Amino acid sequence: MASQDIVRHDAGSRSSFLNDPKIRGLIYQTVLFVLLVAFVYWIVGNTIENLRRANIASGFGFLNNRAGFDISQSMIEYSSDSRYSRALVVGLLNTLLVAVTGIVTASIMGFLIGVGRLANNWLIRKICMVYVEIFRNIPPLLVIFFWYFGVISVLPAPRDSVQLPLSSFLNNRGFFLPKAVWGEGAWLILVGLVVAIAMVWFVVHRARKRQEATGQQFPVLWTSAGLIVGLPLLAFALAGFPLTFEIPTKSTFNLVGGFQIKPEFLALYLALSFYTAAFIAEIVRAGILGVSKGQSEASFALGLRSRQALRLVIVPQAMRIVIPPLTSQYLNLTKNSSLAIAIGFPDLVAVGGTILNQTGQSIEIVAIWMVIYLGISLLTSLFMNWFNAKMALVER
Amino acid sequence: MNKTVKVVLGVAALGFAASTASAATLDDVKAKGFVQCGVNTALAGFSAPDDKGDWKGLDVDLCRAVAAAVFGDATKVKFTPTNAKERFTALQSGEIDLLSRNTTWTLSRDTSLGFNFAGVNYYDGQGFMINAKKLPGVNSALQLSGASVCVQSGTTTELNLADYFKANNLEYNPVVFEKLEEVNAAYDAGRCDAYTTDQSGLYSIRLTLAAPDDHIVLPEIISKEPLGPAVRQGDDQWFDIVKWSLYAMVLAEEYGITQANVDEMKNSPNPDIKRILGTEADSKLGTDLGLSNDWVVNIIKAVGNYGESFERNVGQGSPLKIARGLNALWTKGGLQYAMPIR
What we know:
The complex is a heterodimer. By secondary structure, chain A is α+β, with helices and mostly antiparallel strands. Helix content of chain A is 66%, strand content 7%. Chain B is of the alpha/beta class. In chain B, the strands form 3 sheets. In chain B, strands 1, 4, 5, 6, 7 and 13 form a 6-stranded mixed β-sheet that branches. In chain B, α6 (156-167) links the parallel β9 (147-152) and β10. The longest helix of chain B is centred in the C-terminal third of the chain and has 19 residues, at 236-254. Chains A and B meet through α2, α11 and α12 of A and α1, α4, α6, β10 and α7 of B. Chain B: Belongs to the bacterial solute-binding protein 3 family. Chain B: InterPro entries: Bact_solute-bind_prot3 (IPR051455), SBP_3_CS (IPR018313), Solute-binding_3/MltF_N (IPR001638). Chain B: This is Amino acid ABC transporter substrate-binding protein.
């Protein structure tokens, strides 16, 4: 403390205020800020001026116009009579669908493969290693092409569909499953499920209290599984089995009816899951290896079996290392979904591109793309940060 | 991703360019020494590189004609292959001077996109192609209910398709790709039952399929597709040069001026031909356009008249063998009608 005071006093007495690092820093920042504002002002002004001179329409009013084009897969009601804004929402929902399903699948696969790389079994270890090395070193676009052109395109035409069990079919137009059609009283099943979830929550809570108080364990897993499956089943039976299946049937061009998964979605979903799983596997492996060996030795010394040690000691500690890099992988997967355009899956970028071309409003569309992707990414980060804080070491 | 990046860069160019729109394109072109022309990526007959990498086609000939008119040298042209989505941003941002890429002339492209269409170098209409071997008995587009239809995104084709099926109360499933090559590959692999685009395009694409003879083009034409070159608004001189380069090719066919006889024709006593070829005494027709007086001679020497270009690229002299049809001269029952040079 004393020496700092001396230096500051010394500097102040000998030189002008320009040599004060605080003031100098303030000046630099002000100059930079003014330059930045001037630059942005110039860019915006110049763009508006150029658009005006080139007679290119601008503004977001076009979003209310009739779209005029059809979209092959939509989670909401959409026709060519809908507005451009609705078409963008359809694209956004498709992006979110492939991102969410991809993230779930990639996480499960990545976790299994990551643990597999540390397995004692030589064969499992090597298979997982080869998997990681292959998918980590191929650009995601090529993985997408592999699934689309290499796997799904070479499936037979609809006439010679591959018939799978349960009346499902596979052909080069996608995957066709029987569609469940719920009848009267089906809401009882939903009620059953909600009640079951509430009861499971209660059981978990009580079991923990009891273990903390008495040390006795309660078979929570089996009870919960029984409740979640059993109660809806009971409701289903009570309502008189109100379920029929709509089975896909052959028509002139294609199979009709049933639940259809389009090949474009299938290829993108599989490619993103397989690609990202390789990275997640490495993160999981690093997380497990990051837990010191003493922890597993200590748990074995306490008499825990290898599976228990993994579940109760290793994984909870590994999660703290895993979650932050996992967030980046989730963001990557979401952003990579824009590669959908290469195989014609109508995601946000593909639909936006069509609108851009029909209306010529490139600046507006590019701005919408950027804002939406930024929004999705920030929301994902926010959630993962919350999750990370929750999982972090809580000291008692 | 690459295309998105291109579009973003194009948008950025709109922001940075100090004065793209107002500068005289002719001066810019002369200063850089070549015409930058936006063409299709690969549509045989209209614009596609041959086995030596030279661009060939009806749309490419128009680019060369403009270069010949400006520089007297048809090689002073550079080609920018564009897909359906990039083409408009490329023209708006000034990356290309001229868009000659089988682009349909529509009102909204003339107005809100800020373009001027300099004429029609091919009168076309949208049709459907199917694999007759896989779908025997289908001989009309009205039988396509429930079909999957391959189409390129961001085209008038995509909109006409939606309108046609809606108007006829038919169901369909669009399979939309951004690049022509991707649409071709998906159709050839059997992802779709039908392929729709301009009929000329269908004939051209059919040749690139694995088994061209299995595929037939259905008789219905569901739209008008006047294809022509486009330039930016706000530069009337450049607009005139492109417009009259096209007219000059059509007029040359009308007056029988060909690549072979153009030098002889310069001595013709016919006053119309003298005006066209700039041999009239004290002619100012070429210089008023900002060009030299022998501009038409240069065009015809480089690419021939419209009929020659047509036959060489898409007509009897090409594998496509498309009949002149609507694209015959007005004197022969077609629609090609050029305004007089006088």
